[in-house]
Structures are given as structure tokens and as C-alpha cells.
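I am still getting used to C-alpha cells and would like to learn alongside you. Would you supply a protein for us yourself, any chain you care to pick? Start from the sequence, derive the C-alpha cells from it, and show both lines together. Go ahead whenever you are ready, and we will take it from there.
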Amino acid sequence: MKYEFEVYQMQVEDHLFWVARSKILKGCLGQGDTAEDAIKELEINEEEWIDTATVCGIPVPAPTVHSQYAYSGKVSLRFSPFTHEEASNNAKALNISLNQYINDAIVYYNALNKNKSQLQRELFESEGSLHLPGK
């Protein structure tokens, strides 16, 4: 595999199956009864996607390469003295450090954003299936 992908289970009516979806190549996915089957199909479809894009003159994205240590985990923040005091007081009340308090807030908002994106994708996929011919 050249590109990042995600794997998840999906249910349509009474049929439960696995989907492996490219995060980079739009519309490129694989399905199967197992996660491994879905990944194998995605691998084949990825090559087909690249071949078709090349023939049709569609730009093929460069594979994404992540560095394990791209982020140090350190951030310098500036916020109002009132917000700083309020956050410090809340952290003390919870018996945790201000650093932990800020970290927990970021984790919370990241989870909210991820859940919102997941719900939007599921809604888009379910709406898209309503418009397919023969369905």
C-alpha cells in the first residue's frame, strides 16, 4: 500500500462487512467479509486507481509520509490573565496540574471534532446511497 487508509465495519440492512477506505485517493476503497479481505481489495483498487488516473491525465497524489517525531508535544500558549487564572483555579479544584487541565481540554475538543467528522461522513454516505441507480 502506498497511501494511508482506514478500516471500519459497516452494516447495510442485514449485511455486516468491512470497508478499507483510502484517506488520499478519492473514492478508492475495498470491501470484504474480514478486515484483511477489505485491505487486500483496497490494495488492488489502489493500483487500478493510479493506473486509471495516469491514463486519464489526473494528477496522482504523492504518498503521505509521517515522521514519528514530527511533534514535540510542547506548545507555548498566550491567553488572557483572566482565562489563565480561571483555568488555574479549575485545575486546582480538580486536583490536577494546569498542564494536565489544558491537555484534557485539547483531548476533549479533538474527540468532539472527530465524532462530528465521523457523523458527517456517515450522513454523507447514507445520503449518497439514496441516489444510486437501482437502489
